[in-house]
Write a structure and sequence with these properties.
Elements (H helix, E strand, L loop, with lengths): L6 H7 L4 H8 L4 H4 L7 H7 L3 H11 L10 H15 L4 H5 L2 H13 L18 H9 L3 H8 L3 H7 L7 H14 L19 H8 L24 H17 L6 H7 L15 H5 L17 E9 L2 H9 L19 E15 L11 E10 H5 L9 E9 L5 E9 L2 E10 L9 E7 L8 E10 L41 H15 L1
Antiparallel strand pairs: 1-2, 1-8, 2-3, 3-4, 4-5, 5-6, 6-7, 7-8
Helix pairs in contact: 5-6, 6-8, 8-12, 12-14, 13-14
Organism: Apiospora kogelbergensis
Protein name: F-box domain-containing protein
InterPro entries: F-box-like_dom_sf (IPR036047), F-box_dom (IPR001810)
Length: 512
C-alpha cells in the first residue's frame, strides 16, 4: 500500500483505533516507514517513539536477534541507509561511508539468525536474511572495492599509498574478513593479470618474521601488547590460504566451498549447526561440553601453508631485506606447500578467565589428535603418524575469540599457533591465524593456518580422511590436488623480482 497517495487511508486514520493502524503499518517496506510520519499528524504520532512498530517491521524483513536489548528503530534505519549507500553511484561519496558501513554490517551480523533451517545438507549454519541482504549488497564490485579492499595491503598493490588513518585500514580489512571470500585481485579489470594478484603482497606480510613479536603474542594481534586483533594480518592470511586452496582446486569441494566461496557464510555468533549425520548418530558427549561456551569438542579440518625454508630465509634474512620495520618487504611469489589436517579435539578442563582475558567467558583447555590427510593419500608416506594436540580458547579483552594450539611430537611440543575466530563465539566460519616454532625462534619458520568445525564427533578410525562425516560421501582425493604444488611453476613470465623492482622503489620512498 502506498501511504503517500492513498488519501482515503489518511482521512480514515484520524478515526481508526491506534492498534489497527499499527497492524497495517507493520507490513510496510522498511524504506517506506520513514515517509509515514510525513503523511499526517495522526500517523506521525503513531510512528514516533513506537519501538514496537519498528520491531515488527524489522522482524518482518530481517532475522530475529538471539540477544536482548536491541535498538529496533536504529537498527532498521541503519539497514535502510546501508542499502541507500551501497546503491550510490558516486564512488567518493560511497567511500566516505566506510565507518558507517563497518558498524552497520557488524551489527547486522551480531543480530543474524542462529536457529533457522540450513540451506542444504552440507552447510553448518542456518540461512540468514541479514547475511543474504549483505551478500546481495556486496555482490557489486563497486561496493567490494569501496569498502572491502581499502586496507594498506590493497593500497600497496594498487600503488595508491595514501596517508589514510590506520583505523580505516583496519575497518576495511575486518569487513573483508567477515565477507569471507578473498578478493584475489587488487582491482577489477577485464583482464586479471599476474601483476594484479594480491597473493604476492599478502605473502609479503604473512611470511615477514618481523610481524611476530612478544607484543603480538606471535599471532595476528596489534604490536602493542593490547591483544587487539590486527585485521590486516588476518586479511593477509585469508588471501594466502584462499589463493592456495583455489590453485589446488580444493575450493570446489563443499567442505571448503561453504567456507571460502560463500559470502558472509556463518560469520556470526552462535551460527554453527551440527551436520544432519551428527544428529542421526549418537555422539558421545563429554560432561564438560555442557559448560563449554565455544563448542570446542568435535572434528575440525585444518589447512597449513608454508614456504620452503630456503625461500623463507632468503626472504627474511638476505642483505637486501635489511629494511626499517615500517617498510614492508618485497612482494613474493615463491610458491608454497599446503597441508590438509584432520583435527579431533575434546574439552579437557575449564577455568575462570585470567586478568588479561576477556571476563565474560571462561578459558577452555582442550586435547586431542591430528593427522595429515595428504599422507593418507600417498602410499609412500608414513600414514600412521598421529600428532597430539592441546590448546586453549579464551576471549581477548575486546571480546574476540582467541585460539592457541600446540602440536606435540613424541611427547615434545613442536609447533604452536595463535588464531582468531571469525564471527565470534561458536561461529561456523572458522579460525584464522599463524603457526610458528613453540619456542618463538626469531629465525622462523612461520606461516598461515585456518581450521573450521565439520562435525560434532571427536573420535574416529585413526583420523583417516575416509572417516569424515560429510554428506554425499567422503572427502576424497582431487586428481588436481598436489600438496607440494608450487604456484610459481605455472607462471609463464617473470619472477618475484617483477614485483620488487618498481614497487619497492616507489613504496620505499613513500614509507620512509
Amino acid at each position: 500500500m502506498n501511504l503517500r497517495s492513498d488519501g482515503l487511508f489518511i482521512r480514515r486514520s484520524r478515526q481508526t483505533p491506534p492498534e489497527v493502524i499499527h497492524n497495517v503499518l507493520q507490513y510496510v517496506d522498511p524504506s517506506d516507514l520513514a515517509f509515514v510520519p510525513r503523511v499526517c499528524q495522526s500517523l506521525n504520532n503513531t510512528v514516533r517513539d513506537n519501538a514496537m512498530l519498528f520491531k515488527h517491521v524489522y522482524l518482518a524483513h530481517f532475522d530475529k536477534p538471539a540477544r536482548a536489548n536491541v535498538n529496533w528503530e536504529q537498527n532498521l534505519k541503519d539497514l535502510v541507509r546501508l542499502q541507500v549507500v551501497c546503491q550510490q553511484s558516486d564512488m567518493e561519496a560511497k567511500r566516505s561511508e566506510l565507518a558507517f558501513v563497518h558498524d552497520t554490517v557488524t551489527e547486522a551480523l551480531k543480530n543474524a539468525c542462529v536457529d533457522g533451517e540450513r540451506l542444504n545438507l552440507s552447510t553448518t549454519h542456518p540461512v540468514s536474511r541479514n547475511a543474504t541482504l549483505l551478500s546481495d549488497l556486496f555482490s557489486a564490485h563497486e561496493n567490494q572495492y569501496a569498502f572491502l579492499a581499502r586496507s594498506f595491503l590493497y593500497e600497496r598493490a594498487r600503488r595508491h599509498i595514501r596517508l589514510a588513518p590506520q583505523k580505516e585500514h583496519q575497518m576495511s580489512a575486518k569487513l573483508h574478513c567477515l565477507y569471507g571470500v578473498p578478493l584475489l585481485y587488487a582491482q577489477r579489470s577485464a583482464h586479471e593479470t599476474r601483476q594484479g594478484k594480491m597473493s604476492p603482497f599478502a605473502c609479503s606480510k604473512v611470511y615477514d618474521i618481523r610481524q611476530y613479536t612478544p607484543r603480538t603474542r606471535w599471532g595476528p594481534f596489534m604490536d602493542d601488547g593490547s591483544d587487539r586483533v590486527d585485521w590486516e594480518k588476518v586479511e593477509a592470511i585469508l588471501l594466502v590460504i584462499g589463493a592456495n586452496l583455489k590453485d589446488l582446486g580444493l575450493n570446489s569441494f563443499p567442505i571448503c566451498k561453504n567456507f571460502w566461496e560463500t559470502p558472509f557464510s556463518g560469520v556470526w555468533p552462535g551460527s554453527y549447526l551440527p551436520l544432519p549425520l551428527d544428529d542421526e548418530e549418537t555422539v558421545e558427549q563429554n560432561p564438560l561440553d555442557l559448560q563449554d561456551p565455544y563448542g570446542v569438542t568435535g572434528t575440525w579440518l585444518r589447512v597449513v601453508c608454508f614456504l620452503d625454508y630456503t625461500d623463507f630465509y632468503d626472504f627474511n634474512f638476505s642483505v637486501e631485506q635489511e629494511l626499517p620495520a615500517s617498510v614492508p618487504r618485497r612482494a613474493i611469489d615463491y610458491g608454497e606447500a599446503t597441508r590438509l589436517i584432520l583435527m579431533r579435539i575434546t574439552v579437557d578442563r575449564i577455568e575462570p578467565p585470567g586478568p588479561e582475558d576477556g571476563q565474560d567467558l571462561p578459558v577452555v583447555h582442550f586435547k586431542g589428535v591430528s593427522r595429515s590427510l595428504d599422507d593418507s593419500w600417498d602410499e609412500n608416506t608414513n600414514s600412521d603418524l598421529t600428532v597430539a594436540e592441546t590448546g586453549t580458547v579464551r576471549l581477548t579483552p575486546e571480546g574476540e575469540v582467541r585460539w592457541t594450539t600446540f602440536s606435540i611430537f613424541n611427547g615434545q611440543e613442536r609447533w604452536r599457533s595463535e588464531s582468531v575466530q571469525l564471527g565470534g563465539v561458536k561461529s561456523a566460519k572458522g579460525v584464522l591465524g599463524n603457526w610458528f616454532d613453540k619456542d618463538f625462534d626469531p629465525r622462523g619458520p612461520t606461516g598461515p593456518t585456518a581450521f573450521w568445525k565439520i562435525s560434532e564427533k571427536s573420535s574416529g578410525q585413526n583420523g583417516s580422511h575416509r572417516d569424515l562425516p560429510y554428506p554425499d560421501g567422503a572427502f576424497t582425493h582431487n586428481p588436481n590436488y598436489d600438496p607440494d604444488y608450487d604456484s610459481a611453476d605455472d607462471l609463464d613470465v617473470g619472477s618475484e623480482d617483477d614485483y620488487d623492482e618498481d614497487v619497492e622503489g616507489e613504496e620505499g620512498a613513500e614509507m620512509k
